[in-house]
Protein backbone atom coordinates (compact mmCIF):
# COMPACT_ATOMS: atom_id res chain seq x y z
CA UNK A 1 0.00 0.00 0.00
CA UNK A 2 1.30 3.42 -0.91
CA UNK A 3 2.06 5.80 1.93
CA UNK A 4 -0.74 8.26 2.69
CA UNK A 5 -0.21 11.89 1.68
CA UNK A 6 0.00 13.01 5.28
CA UNK A 7 0.90 10.51 7.98
CA UNK A 8 1.13 11.44 11.63
CA UNK A 9 2.24 8.76 14.04
CA UNK A 10 2.62 8.73 17.80
CA UNK A 11 2.67 12.53 18.06
CA UNK A 12 3.23 13.77 21.62
CA UNK A 13 3.47 17.25 23.12
CA UNK A 14 4.00 17.96 26.79
CA UNK A 15 3.97 21.33 28.51
CA UNK A 16 5.70 20.48 31.76
CA UNK A 17 3.61 17.73 33.30
CA UNK A 18 0.65 18.47 31.08
CA UNK A 19 0.13 16.09 28.19
CA UNK A 20 -1.40 18.23 25.43
CA UNK A 21 -1.05 15.78 22.57
CA UNK A 22 -1.19 12.14 23.58
CA UNK A 23 0.17 9.76 20.92
CA UNK A 24 -2.01 10.93 18.08
CA UNK A 25 -2.04 8.99 14.81
CA UNK A 26 -3.55 10.37 11.63
CA UNK A 27 -3.49 9.39 7.98
CA UNK A 28 -4.85 11.54 5.18
CA UNK A 29 -5.27 10.80 1.49
CA UNK A 30 -5.81 13.32 -1.26
CA UNK A 31 -9.50 14.13 -1.60
CA UNK A 32 -10.20 13.16 1.98
CA UNK A 33 -11.58 15.47 4.65
CA UNK A 34 -10.65 14.44 8.17
CA UNK A 35 -12.32 16.50 10.88
CA UNK A 36 -10.89 16.84 14.37
CA UNK A 37 -13.50 17.82 16.90
CA UNK A 38 -13.44 18.04 20.64
CA UNK A 39 -14.18 20.35 23.55
CA UNK A 40 -12.25 23.58 24.12
CA UNK A 41 -8.74 22.93 25.35
CA UNK A 42 -8.62 19.45 23.85
CA UNK A 43 -5.41 20.30 22.01
CA UNK A 44 -6.78 20.67 18.48
CA UNK A 45 -4.84 23.81 17.61
CA UNK A 46 -1.70 22.40 19.21
CA UNK A 47 -2.02 19.37 16.96
CA UNK A 48 -2.22 21.60 13.86
CA UNK A 49 0.71 23.66 15.11
CA UNK A 50 2.76 20.49 15.54
CA UNK A 51 1.96 19.26 12.05
CA UNK A 52 2.67 22.70 10.55
CA UNK A 53 5.91 22.90 12.53
CA UNK A 54 5.17 25.92 14.70
CA UNK A 55 5.30 23.77 17.83
CA UNK A 56 8.07 21.20 18.16
CA UNK A 57 6.86 17.69 18.97
CA UNK A 58 8.34 15.75 21.88
CA UNK A 59 7.74 12.38 20.25
CA UNK A 60 6.37 11.00 17.04
CA UNK A 61 6.73 11.54 13.32
CA UNK A 62 5.09 13.64 10.65
CA UNK A 63 5.45 12.40 7.09
CA UNK A 64 4.41 14.22 3.96
CA UNK A 65 4.18 12.03 0.87
CA UNK A 66 6.50 9.49 2.44
CA UNK A 67 9.12 12.07 3.49
CA UNK A 68 9.88 12.51 7.18
CA UNK A 69 9.35 16.24 7.81
CA UNK A 70 9.28 16.03 11.63
CA UNK A 71 12.38 18.22 12.00
CA UNK A 72 11.66 20.64 9.15
CA UNK A 73 11.12 24.35 9.83
CA UNK A 74 7.69 25.88 9.16
CA UNK A 75 8.57 27.55 5.85
CA UNK A 76 10.09 24.38 4.40
CA UNK A 77 6.96 22.42 5.26
CA UNK A 78 4.83 25.09 3.64
CA UNK A 79 6.89 24.90 0.45
CA UNK A 80 6.65 21.12 0.53
CA UNK A 81 2.87 21.38 0.39
CA UNK A 82 1.47 21.97 3.87
CA UNK A 83 -0.92 24.91 3.86
CA UNK A 84 -2.47 26.09 7.09
CA UNK A 85 -5.04 28.67 8.03
CA UNK A 86 -5.38 30.32 11.41
CA UNK A 87 -8.22 30.40 13.86
CA UNK A 88 -7.39 34.04 14.58
CA UNK A 89 -7.43 35.79 11.21
CA UNK A 90 -3.81 36.31 10.17
CA UNK A 91 -3.89 38.66 7.25
CA UNK A 92 -1.76 41.76 6.65
CA UNK A 93 -4.32 44.54 7.26
CA UNK A 94 -2.40 47.29 5.47
CA UNK A 95 -2.07 45.22 2.28
CA UNK A 96 -4.83 45.00 -0.27
CA UNK A 97 -6.58 41.65 -0.54
CA UNK A 98 -4.62 41.00 -3.72
CA UNK A 99 -1.29 41.84 -2.07
CA UNK A 100 -2.08 39.45 0.76
CA UNK A 101 -2.59 36.63 -1.70
CA UNK A 102 0.43 37.71 -3.76
CA UNK A 103 2.55 37.34 -0.66
CA UNK A 104 1.57 33.69 -0.72
CA UNK A 105 1.74 33.25 -4.49
CA UNK A 106 5.28 34.60 -4.74
CA UNK A 107 6.39 32.53 -1.77
CA UNK A 108 6.34 29.30 -3.74
CA UNK A 109 7.86 30.76 -6.91
CA UNK A 110 11.57 30.97 -6.19
CA UNK A 111 13.22 33.51 -3.94
CA UNK A 112 11.92 37.00 -3.27
CA UNK A 113 15.19 38.90 -3.58
CA UNK A 114 13.75 40.97 -6.38
CA UNK A 115 13.51 44.59 -5.39
CA UNK A 116 12.59 46.60 -8.44
CA UNK A 117 9.51 45.37 -10.31
CA UNK A 118 6.17 45.96 -8.56
CA UNK A 119 4.55 42.66 -7.66
CA UNK A 120 1.19 43.89 -8.90
CA UNK A 121 2.68 44.34 -12.39
CA UNK A 122 3.78 40.71 -12.70
CA UNK A 123 1.13 38.72 -14.56
CA UNK A 124 2.77 35.40 -13.66
CA UNK A 125 2.06 36.17 -10.00
CA UNK A 126 -1.17 38.15 -10.30
CA UNK A 127 -3.01 35.60 -12.44
CA UNK A 128 -2.78 32.69 -9.97
CA UNK A 129 -3.44 35.08 -7.08
CA UNK A 130 -6.64 36.30 -8.71
CA UNK A 131 -7.71 32.70 -9.29
CA UNK A 132 -7.44 32.06 -5.56
CA UNK A 133 -9.38 35.23 -4.82
CA UNK A 134 -12.09 34.20 -7.23
CA UNK A 135 -12.28 30.75 -5.66
CA UNK A 136 -12.78 32.37 -2.27
CA UNK A 137 -15.35 34.77 -3.71
CA UNK A 138 -13.21 37.85 -3.15
CA UNK A 139 -12.20 38.92 -6.64
CA UNK A 140 -14.40 42.03 -6.52
CA UNK A 141 -12.65 43.19 -3.35
CA UNK A 142 -9.10 42.58 -4.54
CA UNK A 143 -8.00 46.21 -4.46
CA UNK A 144 -9.47 46.97 -1.05
CA UNK A 145 -7.37 47.15 2.09
CA UNK A 146 -7.61 43.82 3.87
CA UNK A 147 -8.00 45.61 7.20
CA UNK A 148 -11.18 47.26 5.96
CA UNK A 149 -12.87 44.11 4.69
CA UNK A 150 -15.85 42.72 6.59
CA UNK A 151 -15.00 39.94 9.02
CA UNK A 152 -16.47 37.26 6.79
CA UNK A 153 -14.43 38.49 3.83
CA UNK A 154 -11.30 38.45 5.97
CA UNK A 155 -11.96 34.78 6.76
CA UNK A 156 -12.31 34.12 3.04
CA UNK A 157 -9.04 35.95 2.45
CA UNK A 158 -7.41 33.78 5.11
CA UNK A 159 -8.42 30.73 3.06
CA UNK A 160 -7.38 32.31 -0.25
CA UNK A 161 -3.87 32.94 1.12
CA UNK A 162 -3.61 29.36 2.29
CA UNK A 163 -4.68 28.06 -1.12
CA UNK A 164 -2.25 30.38 -2.92
CA UNK A 165 0.84 28.51 -1.76
CA UNK A 166 -0.51 25.61 -3.83
CA UNK A 167 -0.52 23.11 -1.01
CA UNK A 168 -1.48 19.45 -1.22
CA UNK A 169 -2.52 19.23 2.40
CA UNK A 170 -4.75 21.84 4.04
CA UNK A 171 -4.68 22.28 7.80
CA UNK A 172 -7.73 24.41 8.52
CA UNK A 173 -8.00 25.72 12.06
CA UNK A 174 -11.65 26.62 12.61
CA UNK A 175 -12.25 28.29 9.25
CA UNK A 176 -15.85 29.03 10.24
CA UNK A 177 -14.91 30.71 13.53
CA UNK A 178 -17.10 33.78 14.07
CA UNK A 179 -19.04 33.45 10.82
CA UNK A 180 -22.81 33.85 10.57
CA UNK A 181 -25.00 31.00 9.26
CA UNK A 182 -25.10 32.34 5.69
CA UNK A 183 -21.35 32.89 5.56
CA UNK A 184 -20.75 29.44 7.00
CA UNK A 185 -22.93 27.93 4.26
CA UNK A 186 -20.95 29.82 1.63
CA UNK A 187 -17.62 28.65 3.00
CA UNK A 188 -18.86 25.04 3.16
CA UNK A 189 -19.78 25.35 -0.52
CA UNK A 190 -16.32 26.67 -1.36
CA UNK A 191 -14.68 23.80 0.50
CA UNK A 192 -16.99 21.28 -1.21
CA UNK A 193 -15.88 22.65 -4.56
CA UNK A 194 -12.14 22.31 -3.86
CA UNK A 195 -12.00 19.29 -1.57
CA UNK A 196 -11.05 16.82 -4.30
CA UNK A 197 -7.73 18.63 -4.85
CA UNK A 198 -6.47 18.43 -1.30
CA UNK A 199 -6.13 16.27 1.75
CA UNK A 200 -7.91 18.38 4.37
CA UNK A 201 -7.49 18.29 8.12
CA UNK A 202 -10.38 20.31 9.47
CA UNK A 203 -10.55 21.50 13.05
CA UNK A 204 -14.02 22.92 13.53
CA UNK A 205 -16.60 23.60 16.21
CA UNK A 206 -19.46 24.13 13.80
CA UNK A 207 -21.04 20.69 13.62
CA UNK A 208 -23.06 21.51 10.51
CA UNK A 209 -19.81 22.08 8.72
CA UNK A 210 -18.19 18.98 10.14
CA UNK A 211 -21.08 16.71 9.20
CA UNK A 212 -21.38 18.28 5.75
CA UNK A 213 -17.71 17.97 4.88
CA UNK A 214 -16.00 15.23 6.84
CA UNK A 215 -15.33 11.71 5.61
CA UNK A 216 -13.84 10.79 8.96
CA UNK A 217 -14.03 12.40 12.38
CA UNK A 218 -11.55 12.11 15.20
CA UNK A 219 -12.73 13.16 18.62
CA UNK A 220 -9.94 14.68 20.66
CA UNK A 221 -10.24 14.90 24.44
CA UNK A 222 -7.29 15.98 26.59
CA UNK A 223 -4.97 15.42 23.65
CA UNK A 224 -6.11 11.85 23.05
CA UNK A 225 -8.17 10.52 20.17
CA UNK A 226 -11.05 8.89 22.07
CA UNK A 227 -13.18 8.04 19.08
CA UNK A 228 -12.75 7.82 15.34
CA UNK A 229 -15.44 7.08 12.78
CA UNK A 230 -17.75 8.44 10.15
CA UNK A 231 -19.85 11.50 11.01
CA UNK A 232 -22.85 9.21 11.47
CA UNK A 233 -21.01 7.01 13.92
CA UNK A 234 -19.81 10.07 15.81
CA UNK A 235 -23.36 11.36 16.05
CA UNK A 236 -24.51 8.09 17.60
CA UNK A 237 -21.52 7.50 19.85
CA UNK A 238 -22.07 7.66 23.59
CA UNK A 239 -18.35 8.33 24.14
CA UNK A 240 -18.62 11.50 22.12
CA UNK A 241 -21.78 12.62 23.84
CA UNK A 242 -20.07 12.17 27.18
CA UNK A 243 -17.00 14.12 26.10
CA UNK A 244 -19.13 17.04 25.00
CA UNK A 245 -21.58 16.94 27.88
CA UNK A 246 -21.83 20.35 29.48
CA UNK A 247 -19.50 21.84 26.91
CA UNK A 248 -21.64 22.18 23.84
CA UNK A 249 -24.26 20.09 22.20
CA UNK A 250 -24.00 18.35 18.89
CA UNK A 251 -26.66 19.64 16.61
CA UNK A 252 -27.90 16.72 14.57
CA UNK B 1 6.72 42.64 16.27
CA UNK B 2 4.03 40.16 15.63
CA UNK B 3 0.28 40.31 16.04
CA UNK B 4 -2.23 41.70 13.67
CA UNK B 5 -3.03 45.09 15.17
CA UNK B 6 -4.07 47.14 12.18
CA UNK B 7 -2.11 50.25 11.48
CA UNK B 8 -4.82 52.92 11.36
CA UNK B 9 -3.10 55.08 8.78
CA UNK B 10 -2.34 52.13 6.58
CA UNK B 11 -5.87 50.88 6.66
CA UNK B 12 -7.12 54.11 5.18
CA UNK B 13 -7.93 53.70 1.55
CA UNK B 14 -6.33 55.83 -1.07
CA UNK B 15 -8.94 57.55 -3.14
CA UNK B 16 -8.32 58.16 -6.81
CA UNK B 17 -5.66 60.81 -7.32
CA UNK B 18 -4.73 60.83 -3.64
CA UNK B 19 -1.17 59.81 -4.46
CA UNK B 20 -0.83 62.96 -6.55
CA UNK B 21 -0.69 65.01 -3.36
CA UNK B 22 2.30 63.07 -2.17
CA UNK B 23 3.97 63.12 -5.56
CA UNK B 24 3.42 66.87 -5.67
CA UNK B 25 4.81 67.39 -2.19
CA UNK B 26 7.84 65.28 -3.09
CA UNK B 27 8.44 67.36 -6.20
CA UNK B 28 8.06 70.53 -4.13
CA UNK B 29 10.62 69.31 -1.58
CA UNK B 30 13.07 68.50 -4.37
CA UNK B 31 12.46 71.88 -6.03
CA UNK B 32 13.30 73.66 -2.76
CA UNK B 33 16.42 71.48 -2.55
CA UNK B 34 17.50 72.65 -5.99
CA UNK B 35 16.55 76.28 -5.33
CA UNK B 36 18.53 76.72 -2.11
CA UNK B 37 22.08 76.88 -3.60
CA UNK B 38 20.82 79.05 -6.47
CA UNK B 39 19.25 81.47 -4.01
CA UNK B 40 22.42 81.35 -1.90
CA UNK B 41 24.61 82.11 -4.91
CA UNK B 42 22.46 85.15 -5.73
CA UNK B 43 22.36 86.53 -2.20
CA UNK B 44 25.64 85.22 -0.79
CA UNK B 45 23.81 83.53 2.08
CA UNK B 46 26.08 80.59 2.94
CA UNK B 47 24.27 79.76 6.16
CA UNK B 48 21.23 78.54 4.26
CA UNK B 49 23.30 76.11 2.17
CA UNK B 50 25.01 74.78 5.27
CA UNK B 51 21.64 74.19 6.92
CA UNK B 52 20.17 72.59 3.79
CA UNK B 53 23.21 70.31 3.47
CA UNK B 54 22.84 69.19 7.05
CA UNK B 55 19.14 68.52 6.49
CA UNK B 56 19.90 66.47 3.36
CA UNK B 57 22.51 64.37 5.19
CA UNK B 58 20.10 63.52 7.99
CA UNK B 59 17.25 63.03 5.53
CA UNK B 60 19.33 60.45 3.67
CA UNK B 61 20.19 58.69 6.93
CA UNK B 62 16.54 58.79 8.02
CA UNK B 63 15.40 57.34 4.69
CA UNK B 64 17.92 54.56 5.36
CA UNK B 65 16.72 53.95 8.90
CA UNK B 66 13.11 53.95 7.68
CA UNK B 67 13.84 50.89 5.58
CA UNK B 68 14.60 48.95 8.75
CA UNK B 69 12.32 50.76 11.20
CA UNK B 70 9.36 51.86 9.10
CA UNK B 71 9.01 49.05 6.60
CA UNK B 72 10.70 46.22 8.48
CA UNK B 73 9.62 47.02 12.04
CA UNK B 74 13.22 46.78 13.23
CA UNK B 75 13.56 49.59 15.77
CA UNK B 76 17.31 50.14 15.61
CA UNK B 77 18.62 52.52 18.25
CA UNK B 78 22.12 52.37 16.82
CA UNK B 79 22.02 53.64 13.27
CA UNK B 80 24.24 56.63 14.13
CA UNK B 81 27.01 54.07 14.23
CA UNK B 82 26.77 53.63 10.46
CA UNK B 83 26.67 57.39 9.96
CA UNK B 84 29.86 57.57 12.01
CA UNK B 85 31.51 54.68 10.20
CA UNK B 86 30.84 56.43 6.89
CA UNK B 87 32.39 59.65 8.18
CA UNK B 88 35.42 57.96 9.74
CA UNK B 89 36.03 56.05 6.52
CA UNK B 90 36.74 59.37 4.79
CA UNK B 91 39.18 60.38 7.55
CA UNK B 92 40.98 57.07 7.96
CA UNK B 93 41.20 56.26 4.25
CA UNK B 94 42.19 59.79 3.31
CA UNK B 95 44.95 59.82 5.91
CA UNK B 96 46.28 56.46 4.74
CA UNK B 97 46.59 57.62 1.14
CA UNK B 98 43.29 56.41 -0.33
CA UNK B 99 41.93 59.76 -1.44
CA UNK B 100 39.94 58.71 -4.51
CA UNK B 101 36.31 59.23 -3.62
CA UNK B 102 34.98 56.31 -5.66
CA UNK B 103 37.52 53.96 -4.12
CA UNK B 104 36.60 55.27 -0.67
CA UNK B 105 32.94 54.59 -1.42
CA UNK B 106 33.69 51.07 -2.63
CA UNK B 107 35.66 50.25 0.51
CA UNK B 108 32.96 51.89 2.63
CA UNK B 109 30.26 49.72 1.09
CA UNK B 110 32.24 46.54 1.70
CA UNK B 111 33.30 47.36 5.27
CA UNK B 112 29.93 48.71 6.42
CA UNK B 113 28.19 45.87 4.57
CA UNK B 114 30.19 43.31 6.52
CA UNK B 115 29.80 45.13 9.86
CA UNK B 116 26.04 45.50 9.34
CA UNK B 117 25.69 41.86 8.30
CA UNK B 118 27.45 40.71 11.49
CA UNK B 119 25.65 43.16 13.80
CA UNK B 120 22.35 42.41 12.08
CA UNK B 121 22.75 38.65 12.27
CA UNK B 122 23.35 38.88 16.01
CA UNK B 123 20.75 41.56 16.75
CA UNK B 124 17.96 40.07 14.65
CA UNK B 125 17.91 37.04 16.91
CA UNK B 126 16.12 39.30 19.36
CA UNK B 127 12.82 41.17 19.23
CA UNK B 128 11.28 44.30 20.71
CA UNK B 129 13.12 45.96 23.59
CA UNK B 130 16.00 43.50 23.38
CA UNK B 131 16.61 44.49 19.76
CA UNK B 132 16.58 48.18 20.67
CA UNK B 133 19.09 47.57 23.46
CA UNK B 134 21.46 45.36 21.49
CA UNK B 135 21.64 47.80 18.57
CA UNK B 136 22.32 50.59 21.07
CA UNK B 137 25.06 48.47 22.66
CA UNK B 138 26.81 47.93 19.33
CA UNK B 139 26.65 51.63 18.55
CA UNK B 140 28.13 52.51 21.95
CA UNK B 141 30.87 49.97 21.35
CA UNK B 142 31.94 51.77 18.18
CA UNK B 143 31.46 55.17 19.85
CA UNK B 144 33.97 54.31 22.58
CA UNK B 145 36.27 52.67 20.05
CA UNK B 146 36.60 55.98 18.17
CA UNK B 147 36.86 57.95 21.45
CA UNK B 148 39.81 55.75 22.37
CA UNK B 149 41.64 56.37 19.07
CA UNK B 150 43.80 59.23 20.38
CA UNK B 151 45.82 59.37 17.16
CA UNK B 152 42.59 60.25 15.35
CA UNK B 153 41.50 63.00 17.68
CA UNK B 154 39.97 60.90 20.44
CA UNK B 155 36.73 62.34 21.74
CA UNK B 156 37.40 65.75 20.19
CA UNK B 157 37.53 64.50 16.66
CA UNK B 158 39.74 65.67 13.83
CA UNK B 159 39.68 67.77 10.69
CA UNK B 160 40.00 65.91 7.40
CA UNK B 161 43.50 66.13 5.93
CA UNK B 162 41.75 66.45 2.56
CA UNK B 163 38.27 65.88 1.16
CA UNK B 164 37.46 62.84 -0.97
CA UNK B 165 38.81 63.50 -4.41
CA UNK B 166 36.45 63.46 -7.36
CA UNK B 167 38.65 64.93 -10.09
CA UNK B 168 37.71 68.52 -10.96
CA UNK B 169 34.85 68.48 -8.45
CA UNK B 170 37.10 67.86 -5.45
CA UNK B 171 36.20 70.19 -2.63
CA UNK B 172 33.50 71.93 -4.70
CA UNK B 173 30.71 72.54 -2.20
CA UNK B 174 28.04 73.11 -4.80
CA UNK B 175 28.91 69.87 -6.60
CA UNK B 176 28.86 68.06 -3.26
CA UNK B 177 25.47 69.53 -2.45
CA UNK B 178 23.93 68.44 -5.73
CA UNK B 179 25.52 65.00 -5.49
CA UNK B 180 23.90 64.65 -2.06
CA UNK B 181 20.55 65.84 -3.38
CA UNK B 182 20.77 63.38 -6.29
CA UNK B 183 21.70 60.55 -3.91
CA UNK B 184 18.70 61.33 -1.75
CA UNK B 185 16.43 61.39 -4.82
CA UNK B 186 17.86 58.04 -5.94
CA UNK B 187 17.38 56.59 -2.46
CA UNK B 188 13.74 57.71 -2.49
CA UNK B 189 13.13 56.29 -5.96
CA UNK B 190 14.82 53.04 -4.94
CA UNK B 191 12.75 52.79 -1.76
CA UNK B 192 9.57 53.46 -3.74
CA UNK B 193 10.34 50.60 -6.10
CA UNK B 194 11.54 48.31 -3.33
CA UNK B 195 8.49 48.48 -1.10
CA UNK B 196 6.15 47.44 -3.90
CA UNK B 197 8.39 44.62 -5.11
CA UNK B 198 8.48 40.97 -4.04
CA UNK B 199 11.18 41.87 -1.54
CA UNK B 200 9.15 44.77 -0.21
CA UNK B 201 6.04 42.68 0.20
CA UNK B 202 7.91 40.15 2.33
CA UNK B 203 9.64 42.87 4.36
CA UNK B 204 6.43 44.78 5.09
CA UNK B 205 4.58 41.60 5.94
CA UNK B 206 7.22 40.53 8.46
CA UNK B 207 6.70 43.81 10.30
CA UNK B 208 3.09 42.86 10.91
CA UNK B 209 3.10 39.07 11.16
CA UNK B 210 6.29 37.04 10.85
CA UNK B 211 4.48 33.87 11.77
CA UNK B 212 2.18 34.16 8.79
CA UNK B 213 5.07 34.81 6.43
CA UNK B 214 6.70 31.59 7.61
CA UNK B 215 3.49 29.63 7.22
CA UNK B 216 3.31 30.86 3.64
CA UNK B 217 6.71 29.35 2.87
CA UNK B 218 9.18 32.21 3.35
CA UNK B 219 11.84 32.38 6.05
CA UNK B 220 11.84 36.04 7.17
CA UNK B 221 15.43 36.39 8.43
CA UNK B 222 17.30 36.72 5.09
CA UNK B 223 14.93 39.48 4.00
CA UNK B 224 15.07 41.31 7.30
CA UNK B 225 18.85 41.09 7.34
CA UNK B 226 19.14 42.35 3.77
CA UNK B 227 16.90 45.31 4.59
CA UNK B 228 18.96 46.03 7.71
CA UNK B 229 22.21 46.02 5.74
CA UNK B 230 20.74 48.19 2.99
CA UNK B 231 19.51 50.63 5.60
CA UNK B 232 22.97 50.71 7.23
CA UNK B 233 24.60 51.42 3.86
CA UNK B 234 22.37 54.44 3.27
CA UNK B 235 23.35 55.80 6.69
CA UNK B 236 27.02 55.22 5.92
CA UNK B 237 26.59 57.07 2.63
CA UNK B 238 25.09 59.96 4.60
CA UNK B 239 28.17 59.84 6.86
CA UNK B 240 30.44 60.00 3.84
CA UNK B 241 28.71 63.20 2.74
CA UNK B 242 28.67 64.59 6.28
CA UNK B 243 32.45 64.28 6.65
CA UNK B 244 33.06 65.94 3.30
CA UNK B 245 30.58 68.73 3.98
CA UNK B 246 31.93 69.64 7.40
CA UNK B 247 35.56 68.71 6.71
CA UNK B 248 35.55 67.28 10.20
CA UNK B 249 34.91 63.94 11.89
CA UNK B 250 34.23 63.23 15.54
CA UNK B 251 32.71 60.50 17.73
CA UNK B 252 29.78 62.88 18.30
CA UNK B 253 28.45 61.61 14.94
CA UNK B 254 28.00 58.19 16.56
CA UNK B 255 26.46 59.43 19.81
CA UNK B 256 23.30 57.64 20.91
CA UNK B 257 21.49 60.97 20.78
CA UNK B 258 22.03 60.98 17.01
CA UNK B 259 20.46 57.53 16.76
CA UNK B 260 17.56 58.94 18.75
CA UNK B 261 17.23 61.98 16.49
CA UNK B 262 17.10 59.71 13.44
CA UNK B 263 14.26 57.74 15.03
CA UNK B 264 12.43 60.99 15.82
CA UNK B 265 12.82 62.11 12.21
CA UNK B 266 11.40 58.84 10.89
CA UNK B 267 8.49 58.77 13.33
CA UNK B 268 7.78 62.49 13.05
CA UNK B 269 7.75 62.35 9.27
CA UNK B 270 5.87 59.08 9.01
CA UNK B 271 7.41 55.65 9.51
CA UNK B 272 6.70 53.33 6.65
CA UNK B 273 6.06 56.07 4.11
CA UNK B 274 8.71 56.60 1.45
CA UNK B 275 9.19 60.37 1.72
CA UNK B 276 8.02 60.83 5.32
CA UNK B 277 11.55 60.68 6.83
CA UNK B 278 12.61 63.59 4.61
CA UNK B 279 9.69 65.63 5.93
CA UNK B 280 10.72 64.57 9.43
CA UNK B 281 14.33 65.66 8.92
CA UNK B 282 13.25 69.01 7.50
CA UNK B 283 10.70 69.50 10.27
CA UNK B 284 13.00 68.63 13.14
CA UNK B 285 16.09 70.49 11.97
CA UNK B 286 14.27 73.64 10.85
CA UNK B 287 12.41 73.72 14.14
CA UNK B 288 15.68 73.24 16.00
CA UNK B 289 17.36 76.09 14.12
CA UNK B 290 14.38 78.37 14.62
CA UNK B 291 14.22 77.74 18.36
CA UNK B 292 17.99 78.15 18.71
CA UNK B 293 17.66 81.62 17.24
CA UNK B 294 14.92 82.45 19.76
CA UNK B 295 16.37 81.21 23.01
CA UNK B 296 19.29 79.30 24.45
CA UNK B 297 16.82 77.10 26.29
CA UNK B 298 15.56 75.76 22.96
CA UNK B 299 15.73 72.14 24.09
CA UNK B 300 13.12 72.78 26.77
CA UNK B 301 10.71 73.87 24.04
CA UNK B 302 11.74 71.38 21.35
CA UNK B 303 11.27 68.32 23.57
CA UNK B 304 7.64 68.89 24.56
CA UNK B 305 6.90 70.12 21.05
CA UNK B 306 8.10 66.82 19.56
CA UNK B 307 6.05 64.86 22.05
CA UNK B 308 3.02 66.96 21.17
CA UNK B 309 3.52 66.53 17.43
CA UNK B 310 4.02 62.78 17.64
CA UNK B 311 0.91 62.44 19.80
CA UNK B 312 -1.24 64.66 17.61
CA UNK B 313 0.08 63.37 14.30
CA UNK B 314 0.00 59.69 15.09
CA UNK B 315 1.20 58.75 11.64
CA UNK B 316 3.59 61.57 10.98
CA UNK B 317 3.73 64.77 8.97
CA UNK B 318 3.54 62.94 5.66
CA UNK B 319 0.18 61.43 6.59
CA UNK B 320 -1.29 64.93 6.64
CA UNK B 321 -1.28 64.59 2.87
CA UNK B 322 -4.11 62.51 1.47
CA UNK B 323 -3.27 59.00 0.30
CA UNK B 324 -2.72 55.86 2.31
CA UNK B 325 0.22 53.50 2.26
CA UNK B 326 -1.72 51.02 0.22
CA UNK B 327 -2.12 50.73 -3.52
CA UNK B 328 -0.01 52.98 -5.66
CA UNK B 329 0.16 55.74 -3.06
CA UNK B 330 3.42 54.69 -1.48
CA UNK B 331 5.31 57.81 -2.46
Report on this structure.
The complex is a heterodimer of chains A (252) and B (331). Chain A has 252 residues and is of the alpha/beta class. Chain A is built from nine helices and ten strands. In chain A, helix 3 crosses helix 4 (123-135) and helix 4 (123-135) crosses helix 5. The two termini of chain A are 36 Å apart. Chain B is built from eleven helices and two strands, in the order αααααβαααβααα. The longest helix of chain B has 26 residues, at 18-43. Chain B has 331 residues and is mainly alpha-helical. Chain B has a two-stranded antiparallel sheet. Mean pLDDT of chain B is 90; it is low at 1-16 and 325-331. Classes of the chains: A alpha/beta (252), B mainly alpha (331). The A-B interface holds A 52, 54, 73-75, 78-79, 84, 86, 88-96, 99, 102-104, 106-108, 112-120, 125, 143-145, 147-148, 161, 164-165 and B 4, 6-7, 10-13, 193-194, 196-202, 204-205, 208-209, 211-219, 222-223, 226, 324-327.
Secondary structure: elements and pairs:
The complex is a heterodimer of chains A (252) and B (331).
Chain A: E1 6-15, E2 18-28, E3 33-37, H1 44-52, E4 59-64, E5 67-68, H2 74-80, E6 82-85, H3 97-107, H4 123-135, H5 151-164, E7 169-173, H6 181-194, E8 199-203, H7 207-213, E9 216-221, E10 224-229, H8 231-236, H9 238-244
Parallel strand pairs in A: 3-8, 3-9, 6-7, 7-8
Antiparallel strand pairs in A: 1-2, 1-4, 4-5, 9-10
Chain B: H1 18-43, H2 46-71, H3 80-95, H4 101-123, H5 128-148, E1 158-159, H6 173-196, H7 198-215, H8 221-246, E2 248-249, H9 256-269, H10 276-294, H11 298-312
Antiparallel strand pairs in B: 1-2
What labels would you give this structure?
heterodimer; A: 252 residues; alpha/beta; Rossmann fold; 2 domains; six-stranded mixed sheet; four-stranded antiparallel sheet; 9 helices; 10 strands; 35% helix; B: 331 residues; mainly alpha; two-stranded antiparallel sheet; 11 helices; 2 strands; 69% helix; globular; disordered N terminus; disordered C terminus
Amino acid sequence: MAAPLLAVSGLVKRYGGLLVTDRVDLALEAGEVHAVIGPNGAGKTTLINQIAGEVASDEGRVELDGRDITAWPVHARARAGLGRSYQVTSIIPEFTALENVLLATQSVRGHNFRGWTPVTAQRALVAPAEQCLELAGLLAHRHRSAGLLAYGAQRQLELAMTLAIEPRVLLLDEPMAGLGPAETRELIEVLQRIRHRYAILLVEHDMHAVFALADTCSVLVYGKVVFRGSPDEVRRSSVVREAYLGDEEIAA
Amino acid sequence: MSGTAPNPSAAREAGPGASRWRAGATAALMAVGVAVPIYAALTGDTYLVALASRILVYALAAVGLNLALGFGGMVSFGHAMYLGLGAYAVLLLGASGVTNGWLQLAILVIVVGVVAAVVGTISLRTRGIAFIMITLAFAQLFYFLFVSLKAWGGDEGMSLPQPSSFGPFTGNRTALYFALLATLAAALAGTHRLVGSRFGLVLRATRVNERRVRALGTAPLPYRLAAYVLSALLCALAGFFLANLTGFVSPAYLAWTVSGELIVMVVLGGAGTVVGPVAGAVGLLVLEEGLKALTEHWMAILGPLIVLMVVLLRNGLWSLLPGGVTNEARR
